[in-house]
Structure formats: C-alpha cells, structure tokens
Amino acid sequence: MSNYEKATQCMKEKDYENAVKFFEKAVENMENPKAGVMLKKAKEEYGEDVNKIGDQLYKKKKYKEAMEYYLESIQLEMDAGEDRKVKKYTEELRKATEKLAKEINKKGDKLMKDDKYEEAISVYMESVDLMSKAGNQKKLENFKGELNKALMKHAEELIDLAKDLAKDDKLDDAVSKIKEASTNAKRTGSEKFINNIEDDSKKIFEIVADETNDRGDDAFKKKKYKEAIKLYKRSVDLIKKSGDERKLKRYKKELSKAFEERAEDINDAGDKAYKEGDYESAIEIYQQSIDMAEQSGDEKQIENYKKELAKSFEKLAKEVNDKGDKLYKEGKYEDAGHIYLRSIQLAQQSKKEKLVKNFTKELRKTYEKWADEVNDKGDDLYKEKKYDEAIEAYKQSVVIAETANDEKTIEKYTKELKKAYKKYSEDLNSEGDAAYKSKDYEKAYELYQKSVEMAMLSGDTKNYKRFSKERDKALRKLQ
Questions:
Q1: How many other β-carbons are positioned within 10 Å of the β-carbon of residue 80?
Q2: 452 and 397 in a common domain
Q3: Is residue 2 situated within a structural domain?
Q4: Largest alpha-carbon pair distance within the chain?
Q5: How far apart (Å, rounded) are the C-alpha atoms in residues 73 and 114?
Q6: Is the separation of the CB atoms in 463 and 422 below 8 Å?
Q7: What is the per-residue pLDDT across 300-344, written as a single tens digit (0 to 9) for each?
Q8: What's the domain range around 237?
Q9: Phi, psi of 382, deg, nearest 5
Q10: How many folded domains does the chain comprise?
Q11: In terms of domains, do 210 and 267 share one?
Q12: What are 264-287's pLDDT values in tens digits?
C-alpha cells in the first residue's frame, strides 16, 4: 500500500495526524499528483478536529488547556492556507486567553478581600500579562489598576509593620520591611505615592538610626568597643537614608572617634577571643580592627590584622569541618553536607587553597552518599509500585548528584527517574482505558491527560503520541 493510499485510509478513519504524515511522504516521493491538494485538505480537517477539542475544553472552563489546542489548530490552518479559519480560531484563542485572565484576576480579588496583598500582587501580575496578550485594552487598564492597588496596600502594610518592629526594637527587620515597601511603591509608577512612602521611610530610618546610635553610646561607655563601632557604623548608614545631614555629621564624628581611640583595644579583644578558641568572635573583632586601620591609613597595621583574621578563619574552618566529619560517621549525610559547605566557605576566607580542596572532596563524597541514600528510597518505593512517591525520591537524588557534580551518577539516576515516569504513565493510561470502557469519559480524559504528562517527562515519544491520541479520543466523546 502506497503512502497516498495509507493517507486516504486514515482520512476515512478521521486519523488526521497520520493522514498528514503519509500525505507528506507521498508529496516527497511524488506518488500522486493529487497528494499536495490532499495534504492541505488533511491539515484543514486536522485543524478543525483539534479546534473542536479546544472548544470542548473551553466549555469545561479549562481555558489554559483550550489555548494550547487553539494554537495548534491555528498553525494547521495556516499551513493549509485557510486564512478565514485562521482568523476565526485566532479570535477563539483570544477569547480563551481573556477568559483565563479574568479567572485569574478573580483569584486576586479574593486575596485582596482576605487582606493577602502580597499573594494578590503575584496573581494580578499574571492576569495583566494574559489580558495584554488578549488585547482587551479596557480590561487591561482595569487589571493594572487592581495590581497597583495591591502594590499600594502591601507597601502601606509593610510601612505599618516597620513602625511596629522599630517600636519593638527589632531594628533590622524594620529596615528590611522599609526596603520592600519602597520597591512596591516604585512599581506603582505613582510619584505621589512613591513620595509618601519615602517620607514615611525616612521617619522610620531616623527613629532606627537614633536608637542604634544610642546603643552605640552605651556600648562605648561600657568599653564594648567592637559592639560600639558596629552600632555607630550602622547608625551612619541609616541616618544617610533619613536625609538628616546634621545628625549624619554628628554620627560620623562619633564613629571616627571610636576608630581613632580604640583600635588597639579592639585588636587585643580579638587576640583574647582567639586564645580562648572563640574563633567566630575573633573574626568579627579582627574585621573591625581592619576597618579601623583602613580609616587611619596604617598599611602595616592593616597587613597584621589581615593575617590574624586569616588565621582565625582557618581555625574556625577546621572546627566546623570536624563537626561535619562527626555527622558523616553517624550517617547523617544531609546535615554533614550543610556543615561541610560552611567549612569550605570559611576555608576560602583563610586563603588556604589546600584546605579548600580537601574540604571540597569531603563535601562531594558526602553528597554522593546522600544521593545514594535517597535513590535507594526511590528504588524501594518503585518496587512497592508507589511510582508517584518514587519519582519524588529519584528527582531529589538527581538534584543532589548534580550538586556533587557527579556526571556518572547523574546519568544513572536520571535513567531511573525516567523509568519511573514511564511506568507511572503506563499505569495511569491503563486506568484511563478502564474508565473509557466503563464510558466514564470525564475520568478517562483526566487519567489520559496525566499519563501524557508523565510520558512526556519520561522522554518516551512513542507512548506520548499514543497516550495523546487516547486523551483526544476521550475528549471527543465529551463533545
């Protein structure tokens, strides 16, 4: 049977996908002078068929899925040269996009009523993007207005929260909320609102700066120089944001005074912390010593302090790494991995390349063990036919192996993940067959759809195509 004859038979059976494929081969092989015309006809009818599935999904209010079918039908009709149908189906795609935008926007409205402004922002942004594609300018402006309202409400909420945090002495958190509020305000594009938020922010920055400076004074009086300098530096940074030049000048003077008078005292405190094995504190103190020496421009002092700082980083890195070794021996690979990672970061600060190299080897070995452990869990779940749970375990093992940069293990575990996807897709498809035979076409469609998704993730093209046809067959029954 020639390709042309096969295609003609497929047309009778309304198997348009294969009809297109065989007519294309017939054209390529010049089997029949009518092949080109019939190819266009097959694509036209295939486009109509795909469009009907889109219509069915549209009626079921599954607008996102409908959009995919409308897009496919448009492409087929474009290939067939059916401009009228292209125009018609494009309008249907636009309507589906608009419906989806409205549906998502309503979710944003509900979140606004529940005072969940941050979540509403994310949802409204999606609805704005879709409505822009739908081309309904009036609705687009409405949706943008709702997005701006959410941004404003959230910004105001953050400013109120920042005020409360400042009152509760949670100064760092207050500053974080101010920055977030300012970002939201800028996104609204409203100069008036941006200025209002900036004015509120400056007042809070001033309150936080004053409080921080007062703490610096207290620490300085108690000869807690490390803490005092840290607080003075922060008060300077904060008062800059308030715009108060008079206070900025005063706070800078206090910081400079602390630098000039107490550099040696602070470094001695670092030496004391180092001798006591408190390397974390020593690092903090030595860093302050370097900062002060840089202010005074004493190059020799800067060099000495940097050496002491590097030594502290080395000691702390080894101390942290020992904790990782203990966890590794206990078989707690995930926890050990986190600890080893920190020890590497500290070793990098010490400038000891050999230490970094050794700790990195330990980290990689730990991730490999952790990946094996998670993968074994996936194997057990696979044997129990719990394919969905096995998939999650295999996915995690691949991610861990990628972190370890173990190409061989990545390849091995990825194969096992794809095998689980394939098995799960086949199971779902069998369930879909049973539902279809029972004439429960709605359930059959849902199961077939999921089997298609799993087949796609497994990389099994053959199953993907077969399951897609069965899904479309169930959809036609719903028409």
A1: 21
A2: no
A3: no
A4: 100
A5: 40
A6: yes
A7: 777 877 887 787 778 777 888 788 888 888 888 788 878 877 788
A8: 206-297
A9: -65, -45
A10: 3
A11: yes
A12: 676 777 777 778 777 777 777 777
